[in-house]
Amino acid sequence: MSGADQTLSQLPDYASSHGSPGVATLSGGQPVDTVTTSLTAGPRGPLLMKDLIFLNTMANFDRERIPERVVHAKGAGAFGTFTVTTEEAKQYCKAKMFDTKGKKTPLVVRFSTVGGGSGSADTVRDVRGFAIKFYTEEGNWDMTGLNTPIFFIAEPMLFASMTHATKKNPVTNVRDPNSFWDFFSLRPESINQLTVLFSDAGIPDGYRYMDGFGSHTFKNVNSNNKVFYVKYHFLSNQGLRTLTADKAAQIAGADPDYSTRDLYNAIATGDYPSWDMYIQVMSADEAEKVKFDPFDITKEWSKQDYPLKEVGTFKLDKNPTNYFQDVESVAFAPSNMIPGIEPSPDRLLQGRLFSYQDTHRHRLGPNFEQLPVNRPAKFPVTNYERDGFQLFDNQGGAPNYFPNSFGGPVMDPKAAWDYNDKISGSCTIGRYDTTTDIYTQATARFTSMDDGQRDRLTSAMAKSLSGAQSFIRDRMYGVLAKVDQRYSDMVKTKVNAIIAAQP
Ligand code: HEM
């Protein structure tokens, strides 16, 4: 944490920088004579229906909460600016935000944990969300990523099940190691990401000290309409810091909002965090020839074969003015893409294209893109969509149908995607399994660890796995043995010791 806790001075700072706004009003703007005393028939009598001040207050209060995000419910956000620092990206991508060195694009970022509810502790062993909304001149581009370059599964159909298995048990409302390990031991393609999760990297020391990744492979199209496949990396200029399991548990009790507080304080004291953006690039021809599946999010691309190319940097220098308005209401979606950036055949990414805006319509209402934090740089937008709840701008008298003869917005053929995805292998429509070569990278990850790292990884995993049924544990030992026999043996020995020590 940087210096004194700035979260404690928010109200005093407000008071010293703002005069009184004058009298309080009802939501309709009518002045009120009291906000403290309800209207009653006599000092001990019942309340009166004509107490509009009381009714207004309660009615608003009763509707304060909106549905929390179905995943990534706990998070923190901030505003900042992205600056292009090299000519690299424009070779591969025609997006205007990359066209000139030095060009700046405003952005909002939300960091999050994944599994916990909106009131959960920040310092849990969990993947972290790393979502960026770039307000580009061509509309919003959302990079809704993570602090890991890989993910547990590659099949989007499984996402709801994976989330059910990792969140609370529907009967006990408590996290359940049986469902967690049952699911993952039956889907061993998750072992690469599980090894990251239970390693030292599994509990970042706040949001500033972690890298971000687009994780997926994205399709980029350059100004000559040439296709490239690209992975995005955001490397922290604060360096990487993690917490031990014991320290994290202690902080979770003492200060559940630890990472949120840390980010707020850093920005409030001018210690602005920043990340440098890099890309890995693969040509379309190469993507057809490489021996691995470049669209499989359970695996990384080798940095030797696909070196990181520097693109730009972003800095966060503004805290939210109001959490609910700027962070709870922000709506990221992998489907928010701009000309030059398109979905690759990555199946999980394709699955995500539907989910986010669908959940936003449920969580924030159909006009969520008109909320100030979600508005594109060019607002109001011009199209033929109209009406619906919570509308801020309905495009006035512009024609609401197409074709029209009255000056409505027109189509831009240049905005067309490269729709001609080359479909690799058979193009017979079917439901194809996504799991191939699921152990090689996990084995490399385990082998590259030193003894201490392996010890902590296996201890953390054993602690969690020891809560699962013995047949699930045995299945998991089998998965681990396929990564490395030592991995399996170490976890098994530690699980047995934990169980033996239990009363
Ligand atoms: C949040 C779905 C995989 C990153 C969410 C939300 C949903 C969702 C419904 C809540 C959004 C909201 O209420 O605003 C899915 C589905 C996936 C998937 C269906 C797979 C099929 C992934 C992957 C990543 C990711 C692979 C990263 C590479 C995030 C992040 C958030 C999020 C960062 C939080 C966004 C925020 O801060 O508001 N996801 N997700 N998700 N997801 Fe995913």
Automatic annotation (TrEMBL):
Reactions performed catalytically: 2 H2O2 = O2 + 2 H2O
EC number(s) stated in the UniProt entry for this protein: 1.11.1.6
UniProt region (Disordered), positions on chain: 1-40
GO CC, one annotated term: mitochondrion
Keyword field: Heme, Hydrogen peroxide, Iron, Metal-binding, Oxidoreductase, Peroxidase
Tree of life domain: Eukaryota
Classification via InterPro entries: Catalase (IPR018028), Catalase_AS (IPR024708), Catalase_clade1/3 (IPR024711), Catalase_core (IPR011614), Catalase_haem_BS (IPR002226), Catalase_immune_responsive (IPR010582), Catalase_sf (IPR020835)
Compositional bias segments (type: Polar residues): 1-10
UniProt keyword annotation of Lipid biosynthesis present: no
One Pfam assignment: Catalase
Cofactor requirements of the protein: heme
Biological process, per Gene Ontology: hydrogen peroxide catabolic process; response to hydrogen peroxide
Boundaries of every Catalase core domain copy: 25-410
Enzyme class, first EC level, given as a word: oxidoreductase
Residues annotated for heme binding in this entry: 356
GO molecular function: catalase activity; heme binding; metal ion binding
Function: Catalyzes the degradation of hydrogen peroxide (H(2)O(2)) generated by peroxisomal oxidases to water and oxygen, thereby protecting cells from the toxic effects of hydrogen peroxide.
Family, similarity comment: Belongs to the catalase family.
Protein name, as recorded: Catalase
Native source species: Tribonema minus
